[in-house]
Design a protein that fits this description.
422 residues, mainly alpha, Serine Threonine Protein Phosphatase 5, Tetratricopeptide repeat, 21 helices
């Protein structure tokens, strides 16, 4: 027998909350929790960002297991140029929090500045792996590839950076232009630099490098305007004056253009008295009009600043012969020919490397050629690239270590302290 309960039944009825209202309430709770957590993190970072290096040092002493504090400490040390201590702080941060993309970014930045390109590449790649939208890590990785002599590889992270934020990618377009330029892809370089100045028209170096490309294409009026913009934005930059002088030299050997070129080269020297290229161009400018009294001292200065430059040696030798100093002049011209042959050897290898970028044999040969001609920076760079392209070669590593020790004894590069020896 079934019993029916009427409206007066004492049975307690359940109060039903509408589903949509329940979802809304839960959503508000989640938002509140999220805001509380994010505000707490934001306040922590704001506090850490306001601390001095000394206060951060005390903070890591008080919180020895806090990765974020070590990351900020490492950043402050990096800004102060204390690379060893900064690297130690970032390494500590990555050990405390292996998921911190920011710590790996900082570590890669330190390693890049120290010239440890292989380690820097690994750190930047790890930062990207942890945060695929980390724009600074993409830029750092591109710079690592560029310094290793791999401009084609460097272009890829820059393209990803541009895709992430196309409206604010002026820097990426600029570096992409440099990569294409070094790969002898002038059309692509020109397009990239035009994008760079369109996105960020207030960067003098963008206009200066764009001017070099428009000059390359013999668009001299455009190049003149580009260098003019660069000078207006950064009047103290000697390179912009130098390149503007080159434009006037190219425009013609008239009194007007000669005068403008002369003033540009003199302006470049006034801003950088050690700018060898400007003395060389001044010497050539004077020699072109048989003014050897002014040509010779400028060419001697160019040679003094860079005695490995075959062009200044040749021009000086030619001028000395013109004024009757045949013996010294012929000796200098012979030296210029020997230097030119060395440059041809280097240029040949550079072109082969562009075509065969993964060839370890070419990289090692290039390193030894640079070493032969006392270009230690590029020699060390090519040794590093050699090791990144395959399994570690202990014999070559020993060769490089001996070379580094030799350079350190000569005082040409500093000795580096082990960052883990704290």
């Amino acid at each position: 027998m079934h019993t029916t309960l009427n409206s007066n039944s004492t049975t307690r009825r359940r109060v039903r909350i509408p589903r949509i209202l329940l979802i809304a309430i839960l959503g508000l709770i989640a938002i509140a929790v999220s805001l509380t957590v994010s505000n707490s993190q934001w306040l922590r970072e704001r506090r850490l960002n306001s601390l001095t290096p000394l206060e951060l040092a005390l903070a890591v002493h008080d919180q020895p297991n806090d990765a974020l504090t070590y990351t900020y400490f490492g950043s402050s040390l990096l800004k102060a140029g204390k690379l060893d201590d900064s690297e130690f702080a970032f390494q500590r941060a990555t050990r405390l929090d292996p998921r911190s993309a920011r710590a790996y970014l900082g570590l890669g930045s330190v390693q890049f500045r120290r010239g440890d390109l292989k380690s820097a590449q690994s750190s930047f790649e790890q930062a990207i792996k942890l945060d695929s939208k980390n724009m600074e890590a993409y830029l750092g990785l591109a710079q690592v590839y560029y310094q290793q002599g791999l401009p084609a590889h460097a272009a890829e992270p820059l393209k990803k950076l541009i895709a992430l934020d196309p409206k604010h990618a002026g820097t990426a377009w600029y570096f992409l232009g440099k990569m294409y330029g070094d790969s002898h892809q002038s059309d692509l370089a020109l397009d990239a630099l035009q994008h760079a100045v369109a996105l960020d028209p207030n960067r003098a170096e963008y206009w200066r490098d764009l001017g070099q490309l428009t000059k390359h294409y013999s668009r001299l009026d455009e190049a003149e305007q580009d260098f003019g913009r660069a000078i207006k934005l950064r009047p103290e930059d000697p390179l912009s004056y130098y390149w503007l002088g080159q434009v006037y030299v190219t425009k013609g050997n008239t009194a007007t253009f000669r005068g403008r070129a002369e003033q540009c080269f003199l302006s470049a020297i006034a801003r950088d008295p050690k700018m060898q290229e400007s003395y060389l161009e001044l010497g050539r400018l004077y020699a072109r009009n048989d003014n050897y009294a002014l040509a010779i001292p400028n060419l001697r200065k160019a040679r003094e600043l860079d005695n490995s430059d075959d062009q200044s040696l040749y021009e000086l030798g030619r001028c000395l012969i013109k004024v009757g100093n045949k013996q010294e002049g012929e000796k200098l011209i012979q030296g210029a020919k020997e230097l030119e042959a060395a440059k041809r050897e280097i240029s040949f290898l550079q072109k082969r490397i562009i075509a065969e970028g993964q060839s370890r044999e070419l990289r090692l040969r290039m390193a030894r050629v640079y070493r032969k001609y006392d270009n230690y920076r590029d020699a060390l760079s090519q040794y590093n690239v050699y090791q990144t392209l395959g399994a570690r070669d202990e014999a070559v590593a020993k060769e490089m270590d001996q070379y580094i020790a030799e350079l350190q004894r000569q005082g040409r590069i500093p000795k580096v302290r082990d960052p883990l020896s704290h």
